[in-house]
């Protein structure tokens, strides 16, 4: 059995509908993130980026000098 091909217009309409649905779900997700964590998605991305940069910096400094044990501070 051969499947019916969709017209370009139908495909464009379907993509537009899917795009609107994706935007709706992104907004819903962003609201849930803000409610749960008190930060926007963008703010959380910034926090994660800064944390990663701090960890890289810390690891680089550890490679340059021996790390002190917990008892030797």
Describe, in plain words, how this protein is organized in 3D.
- The protein has a domain of 35 residues.
- Helices cover 74% and strands 0% of the residues.
- The chain is mainly alpha-helical and 73 residues long.
- It contains two helices and no strands.
- The model has no long low-confidence stretch (mean pLDDT 88).
Task: List the main descriptive attributes of the protein structure presented here.
2 helices; single chain; mainly alpha; 73 residues
Secondary structure blueprint with pairings:
Layout: H1 8-37, H2 41-64
Total of helices: 2
Rg, Å, rounded: 24 Å
Give me the secondary-structure category: mainly alpha
The largest sheet, given as strand count, sense and whether it forms a barrel, is: none
Q: What coarse outline follows from CA principal-axis ratios? A: elongated
- Proportion of beta-strand residues: under 5%
What would you say about this model in short?
The chain has helices at 8-37, 41-64. The chain is mostly helical and 73 residues long.
């Amino acid at each position: 059995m051969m499947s019916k091909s969709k017209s370009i217009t139908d495909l464009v309409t379907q993509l537009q509908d899917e795009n609107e649905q994706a935007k709706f779900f992104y907004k819903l997700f962003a609201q849930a993130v803000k409610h749960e964590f008190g930060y926007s998605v963008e703010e959380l991305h910034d926090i994660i980026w800064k944390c990663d940069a701090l960890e890289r910096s810390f690891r680089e400094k550890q490679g340059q000098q021996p790390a002190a044990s917990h008892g030797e501070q």
